[in-house]
């Protein structure tokens, strides 16, 4: 598991019950460190399952992965990906959807197969069934070999908002006001920010 905290300039790598903490000089070094770990995993296992995250923090990492692919250093042909979350109500062609984000920042520039890309469907007619489908998918193609996580301003992981207990399975979440406020910079106005999202649960994240 890789936890990225852009503002503290710290990179975390968790192996089982051990945590390694790397303090880096700047965002560029953080991105390089994270990308190098992912590259090592891909070279070790060309059929790896990568857990991916969105937001501004991993963009630098994805840029380096694109560059390494262009140089022929890595191959996404047999890589599978599982994204953490998606806004409810945003079509995948909406520039603010996480599906769109991933394609614009990584998938459109590497040779990953379309059927190996997995992102929750935020426009599913039956959201409960979509959550079950996604959990079954993770069980089927997992376990996730390496998971990228960002930490939200209020401490949320994926869209698992702070609470007295976490939901373990993929679920629909009501976004906290602080999360909506933090994400309004990506939208024309705060009223455009979705109020709900689908997120992978802590159980899959921590596995």
Provide an overview of this structure.
There is one protein chain. With 207 residues, the chain is an alpha/beta fold. The chain is built from six helices and ten strands; from the N terminus they run E-E-E-H-E-H-E-E-H-E-H-E-E-H-E-H. It has a seven-stranded mixed sheet, with helices on one face. Strands 6-10-9 form a three-stranded antiparallel sheet, covered by helices on one side. A hairpin with a 4-residue loop joins strand 1 and strand 2. Helix 1 (27-44) crosses helix 2. It is globular and about 40 Å long. The model is unreliable at 6-12 (pLDDT under 50).
List keywords for this structure.
alpha/beta; globular; 10 strands
Would you kindly provide a brief summary of this structure?
The protein has helices spanning about 25-45, 60-70, 100-105, 125-140, 175-185, 200-205; strands spanning about 1-5, 10-15, 20-25, 50, 80-85, 85, 115-120, 145-150, 170-175, 195-200. The protein is α/β, with parallel strands linked by helices.
Spatial arrangement of strands, main beta sheet: 3-2-1-8-4-5-7
- Structural class label: alpha/beta
Radius of gyration: 16 Å
Order of helices and strands: EEEHEHEEHEHEEHEH
Shape: globular
What average pLDDT do the residues reach? Answer: 86
β-sheet strand percentage = 15-25%
Uncertain runs with pLDDT below 50, 5 residues or more? 6-12
Tally of alpha and pi helices: 6
Q: Approximately how much helix is present in the residues?
A: 25-40%
Number of DSSP strand runs = 10
User: Whole-Å distance between the termini?
Assistant: 9 Å
For the biggest sheet, the summary is: 7 strands, mixed
């Amino acid at each position: 598991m890789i936890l990225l905290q852009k503002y503290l300039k710290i990179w975390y790598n968790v192996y089982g019950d051990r945590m390694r903490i790397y303090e880096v000089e700047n965002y560029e070094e953080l991105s390089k460190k994270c990308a190098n770990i992912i590259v090592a995993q891909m070279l070790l296992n060309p059929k790896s399952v990568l857990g991916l995250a969105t937001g501004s923090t991993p963009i630098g990492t994805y840029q380096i992965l694109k560059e390494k692919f262009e140089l022929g250093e890595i191959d996404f042909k047999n890589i599978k990906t599982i994204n953490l979350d998606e806004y409810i109500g945003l079509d995948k062609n909406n520039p603010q959807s996480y599906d769109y984000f991933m394609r614009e920042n990584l998938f459109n520039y590497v040779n990953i197969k379309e059927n190996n890309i997995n992102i929750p469907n935020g426009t599913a007619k039956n959201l409960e069934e979509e959550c079950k489908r996604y959990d079954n998918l993770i069980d089927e193609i997992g376990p996730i070999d390496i998971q990228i996580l960002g930490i939200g301003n209020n401490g949320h992981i994926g869209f698992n908002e702070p609470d007295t207990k976490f939901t373990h399975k993929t679920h629909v979440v009501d976004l906290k006001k602080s999360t909506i406020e933090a994400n309004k910079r990506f939208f024309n106005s705060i009223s455009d920010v979705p109020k709900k999202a689908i997120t992978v649960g802590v159980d899959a994240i921590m596995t």
